[in-house]
Records
---
Amino acid sequence: GQKDMVWRLIPLLLLLAWTASMCSARARTDLLNVCMDAKHHKAKPGPEDKLHGQCTPWKEKACCSVSTSQELHKDTSLLYNFTWEHCGKMKPDCKRHFIQDNCLYECSPNLGPWIREVNQSWRKERFLHVPLCKEDCQQWWEDCRTSYTCKSNWQRGWNWTSGINKCPAGTTCRTFETYFPTPAALCEGLWSKSYQASNYSRGSGRCIQMWFDPAQGNPNEEVARFYAMAMSAGALPRVVEPLLLSLALMLQFGLLG
């Protein structure tokens, strides 16, 4: 009686375990080809033939509109009324990295694995700890070390009374190298840990490239796939364990009873 009932339940439990694991894997595919819920992002990525300047690598599948891509090339864009030149002129070599960083932020559909919910007035989601390729981080730092800034975290703490970001009272304009002594300090500190300085190199398939040649395809698609798969593998045990445990208990009570 009881024993038969337990054995009949086994296929059901296995089906449940399988369904649960599929659901978690299904949720993970939603991490691919997505736009985050933020101020200027489109709801879904799509082609944008006329993307401007440094944003053109994303034109096949973009989360940004043409007008967004144009705005973020300006010294003080209307997107956020934010200026990089809060300590005087920024060198063009340095500035191009900030434009590229903005294009990645606004346009990339490959940051799903790192999107997190936030409660900010201007966005519901952000990305966190995106593994930025070693060379991209290094070059950014190299090209900017002699430009000037007054803060090591640009996400918060500015004086906004004039309508654009100004250095807060008590801060001094010094070289980037003073505020960001290493490439990692720059990439990780600048936007409150949006990026993580990766030890992986460009082309490894394990780190996100800020700079890439779209003629060779978008290398970040493979990277997003890898991390999405890794996350779904990590999610499986959490789903299956309680089911297997209940199966074990039922067997034990059933067979002992």
---
Amino acid sequence: VEAVHLIADGKAPRIPQPKEGATYEGIQKKENAEISWDQPAAALHNWIRGHDKVPGAWATIDGQVVTFYGSSLLDASVPAGQELAIKGASRPGLVTKNGLVIFGNDGKMVLVRNLQFEDGKMIPASKYFSTDETTALELTEEEKKMAEDIR
């Protein structure tokens, strides 16, 4: 009750919070979220997870910024996959059926499930080398008649 009265009377002491020991981190910016490749796999995983969803941990692949989402530590033998050169990484990543495998400086692996390009397009990392082939839908005569009836 005394504290409430001090506040109401404008007489409550004001003690500024010291900066030392503060745990609050300001809003992260995209330019500060670039992945530093000279660290163990666990640190890479934590960096990607810590920046997932905003602002998104990123690296340069084929000259463009690619953002990594959905990482997990991979404790298995090195899977089969197609190599992908990543700027700054000491070892190329591997595009596998489960996603993009990246390597820490300790030789351990991290699996990244999704990648987002600068234009905002997000794909499963396992589809990095897939082409954007689209096939036209062809209807049978019966389906064409049904479509006409529905219209």
---
Amino acid sequence: LKNQLLADHGHNPLMKKVFDVYLCFLQKNQSETALKNVFIALRALIFKFPSTFYEGRADMCSALCYEILKYCNSKLSSIRTEASQLLYFLMRNNFDYTGKKSFVRTHLQVIISVSQLIADVVGIGGTRFQQSLSIINNCANNDRIIKHTTFPSDVKDLTKRIRTVLMATAQMKEHENDPEMLVDLQYSLAKSYASTPELRKTWLDSMARIHVKNGDLSEAAMCYVHVAALVAEYLTRKGMI
């Protein structure tokens, strides 16, 4: 069924069903042995059907990054290592797919997923997660085949950006009882991603949720108007409207 699975760069009903099965294994509690086999199976899927993750819509790449990053915060060191290496494989495969030019797709989806995980997962960004970032960096530095390309420095830049987001989030945690300061920090983070519409939207959505929680509905509405303008501008540039 390879031809059917590859139709429309892998964005077809059959591939969606296959991918959902893989995703289900990551979303449900599994034994350590089962998880290791799921990670191996995912490597095979990424290797055989790269266009599914690196071409067209980003939804499958996004969902996979999100689930893998959750395991980068696992209490089991062996699972953290396996998850970190799988995420590195996703990034490295993306780099190879573009003819060793960049891994922009995975880079962006990792940052977006980290931003979402901060709100969804307790303790993300702690020592365990930091260790996983170090493993990813080490993988890039020790990969001899791409040693003389931009890849190792790009990976370092990605992990640095993740740490910046985590530091900003820690500051937000300190000021969680000060709504105005909290929103100011959110705004600064959103502003820092002015050149990346998807990330700017992620943080504006987060700001809106804080405003709604505090009963500041006018401010929340302004955030959503800004998001709508951002989406409209993006679609106009793409010639879609």
---
Amino acid sequence: MRTVTYFFIFLNLSLAVFEEPAVYPLPFLVTSLVEVVCLLVFFGRLTHFAKVTFRDTFWKDTKNICIMVAILLSLTDLAIYGILRIYNVSSIRWSRIVRPVFLINFAESRQIRRAFRSIRNTLPEITYVFLLFMFSLLMFSLMALKLFGERNLRTAEGLPYFKNYLEIVFDLYVLVTTANSPDVMMPAFDFSSWYALFFIAFVIVNTYIFMSLFLAVVYNNYKKHLKVMFEEVDCD
């Protein structure tokens, strides 16, 4: 049963590759039939679990309620999407976002739920580091606006360089990943090579220091919560 459940969960999640907009598009009838089969299997698995569980216990378990709601939402969305498609009305399959619910909430996914719960418990504790990072990003963006906003610089495409504060925030946020380096620096560097020091300082502070600190906090807190969770399981 565990193998069958995982197979149909994987099949259900894989439909995103074949549904519009798709990497390998398949006819809507094919993908919808596969999804209906998957949902029927999930409903059968849930029904089987209800047969071997006390009724009060079954309905008090939020995991079962989540699966039931996800099945109903998926079927409703599939029916609405199919009807709109018949009348050539464009729409979006909004129920795709509930598909991971099946992966998390089935009884066979106990280890996945533990990992998910550890991530959820870790989030509040990394908020302070994230806020410090955002403060640093906003302050560097403000300095960039003051440094380059009045220089009348242009990008390689001829667009104004560092004129809009929100665009600066986004460009420097991307620079944290170094995805736009050194392109984002070149207009300022061409104006004066000394301006490279600003971008070097930004990368050192935000990419190397803050990202390392952020990763360390996430790892340590996640490991702590996971350890506590396994200790509680052993005690039970």
